Amino acid sequence: MGRQNLMTEFIKGLWKDHPLMRQLLGMCSTLAITTTVINGISMGLGVTFVIVSTSFFVSIIRKIVPPQVRIAVYAAIIATFVTIVDIFFKANFPKISEALGPYVPLIIVNCIVLGRCEAFACKNGIWASVWDGLGMGLGYTWVLIVLGTIRELLGSGTILGKTIMPSVYNPLVVMVLPAGAFLLLGFLLALMNRLEQKKQVS
Amino acid sequence: MKETIKIVSVLTIVCILCAFLLAFVNNAARGQIASNDTKKIEDAIGKLAPLFKKTEKLNIAGEEIYKLFDAKGEVLGYAFLAKGDGYQGVIKVLAVINPQIDKLEGIEIIESVETPGLGARIKEDFFRNQFKNLKVSVPIECVKENITQDNQIKAISSATISSKSLVNILNKKISELKKQLANQ
Amino acid sequence: MKDLILIFISTVLINNFVLYYFLGICPFLGVSGKIESAFGMGVAVIFVMTIANALSWLIYHLVLVKMGLGFLAYLLFILVIAALVQIVEMFIRKFSPPLYRALGIFLPLITVNCAILGATLLMVTKNYNFIQSVVYGFAGGLGFTLIILVMAGIREDLEYADIPSVFKGAAITLVTTGLLALIFMGFSGLISA
Asked: Does residue A75 belong to the interface with chain C, where contact is any CB pair within 8 Å?
């Protein structure tokens, strides 16, 4: 496969087929952990690592896995890499591991990962799958960072733990609560639809 | 039949490989994780009882309690871990108590997943400092208004549940501790 | 007994899986369009979640902890869930073909329903005993069903509402969920620690 094609596989995850905004996959962790920017970054990178490595392995074994058990096999591979990420965070970044809590193991059931295995990696070559996974992972990461930034700024008045808002600012606590997450993501989706509509009109 | 054998064997092989990989990674990281945990507890004790030089781990009924000594070998108090349900998940707190077991030296939150901006403020100094020199010969009380007794602390506003849970966790553990240490 | 009732109420209403832990959002968005399919999904989740919690508890406490293999927990939990889902799928296909058609692709996706794995993981972190875990799984599924049914009811009405075109679809659903979450926060006063 040419370099051009690999590039396309990579780019599409960033906007056109964005896993979260377009396909509505991986909502749970998105909403749950984006209370701060740093959580968003670490979660995004964790998910990216898991998608890339599982896409790689699923693509390798795609010809020998009987279709009846493919989901179970994918799940086993994903669970393995997620456990690795979990152990890695625990060993090297205990603070982050604590903040993400049960949402690290929940990457296993992040539909994006399984979705890519099922929709792409089991039909495509190794390199295409890796690039596809990388694009999807990074596409996911940037939205997490955007959400994390807005929620941390409005909800706690800080960014990356540093106080940004003037002291008279009274934090909108609702932004860090579950309700705020749903509302914000709803409005972001609407904004994205608006941008698409404008594009089509012009 | 051939199909079944293929299904079973592929699934088994994948699982075995995964388990081996995990065992390998886990082995490599286990030491680091354990030392992180110990370091965290030691750091917390260091903050609460800066004079301590030596700890002795008492193993009472499977629970870890640390007896703290200063440089001269005098007993400074006991450090213990208490754990229980908070508003959202488990709160794990380390507390240091004086040798007479009637006054807290202070607490450090080791683990919590309370709501950021609300319950998570149990980690902040303004709240934790209330536990310094708090009387615990009678159970701690958590009040919403002003403090009138020396066994009371003021709950974080709009995070009463987290505050109360923490107090309950401590009360339960302290009453156990009294019994356990009396038996020693 | 008291602790079981407490677990039950707090899991259904206060720490609801969808509104509080954000678990199971994907199927929630996917099948909450019609009350019928929402109900089917809910029942399947209750069933799978209760049994998954029971089995995972047994595996975790009787095998993994005893043998010091805690790090295999995620792998085994997901396999238990995958197998269970397969069984439920065969069961529904046999006994209720219309329901099977309605749930379509969402049944296999129950495997990746975060709520189910989430319940097993939370049951481990919360250190529940066997009975508590089973109640927790059942209540979790019930809470999920409750929310997905409420949402389906609202969405059936939303069909006829005049909403801005940019909000159509997932966006308005998320905003509505946010409002629901705000409403359910009112329940948190039900239990005082």
From this structure: yes
Phi-psi region of B71 (alpha: psi -120 to 50; beta: other; left: phi over 0): alpha
Decide: A81 and A107 in contact? Cβ < 8 Å: no
Q: What letter does residue B115 receive in the DSSP assignment?
A: P
The runs of H, that is alpha helices, within A109-125 are 111-116
- Work out the number of other CB atoms within 10 angstroms of the CB of residue A32: 24
Report the distance separating Cα B109 and Cα C23, nearest Å.
26
**What residues in B contact C19, CB-CB < 8 Å?**
none
Nearest-CA distance C154 → chain B (Å): 28
**ipTM over cut 0.85:** no
Contact residues, chain A, for C23 at CB < 8 Å: 28, 106
Give the residue from B7, B15, B115 with the most C CB atoms within 10 Å of its CB, the best one to mutate.
Answer: B15
Q: How far is CA A71 from CA B35, C5, C13, C110, in A?
A: 37, 36, 32, 11
Alpha helices in chain A (DSSP H): 3-12, 27-33, 37-60, 70-92, 94-100, 111-116, 126-156, 178-201
Each residue's pLDDT tens digit in chain A (202 positions)?
566 777 888 888 787 777 777 777 777 778 888 888 888 898 899 999 999 999 999 999 888 888 877 878 888 898 899 999 989 988 888 878 877 877 788 888 777 888 888 888 888 888 889 999 999 999 999 999 999 999 888 887 888 877 877 877 777 778 878 888 889 989 988 988 888 888 887 6
The pTM assigned to this predicted structure is 0.81
Encode pLDDT of C14-58 as tens digits: 888 888 888 888 778 877 778 887 887 888 888 889 989 999 999
The letter for the amino acid at A190 is A
Tell me how far apart the alpha carbons of residues B135 and B103 are, in angstroms, rounded to a whole number. Answer: 5
Tokens standing for B99?
């040798």
A164 in Cβ contact with B108 (< 8 Å) = no
CA-to-CA separations, C105 to C40, C145, C152, C174, in angstroms, rounded: 13, 18, 18, 21
Cβ-based neighbours of B144, under 8 Å, separated by 6 or more? B154, B155, B157, B160
Q: How far apart are CA C60 and CA C72, in angstroms?
A: 9
Strand partners, C69: none
Comparing C-alpha atoms, which of A121, A129, A145 is closest to residue A20?
A: A145
- With a CB cutoff of 8 Å and minimum separation 6, the contacts of A167 are none
Do the Cβ atoms of B115 and A88 come within 8 Å? no
- Alpha carbon separation from A31 to A112, C118, C120, C173 (Å, rounded): 14, 15, 20, 14
Question: Rounded to whole angstroms, how far apart are CA atoms A160 and A178?
Answer: 20
Burial bucket for residue B81 (CB in 10 Å: 0-12, 13-18, 19+): middle
Beta bridge partners of B63: B60
CB contact under 8 A, B32 and A91: yes
Tokens of B53: 């030089």
User: What's CA A67's distance to the chain center, in Å?
Assistant: 27
Q: What is the per-residue DSSP string for C48-96?
A: HHHHHHHHHHHIIIIIIHHHT-GGGHHHHHHHHHHHHHHHHHHHHHHH-
- Smallest CA-to-CA distance from C111 within C136, C94, C87, C139 is with C87
Best probe of the B interface among C17, C71, C79, by most B CBs < 10 A, is C71
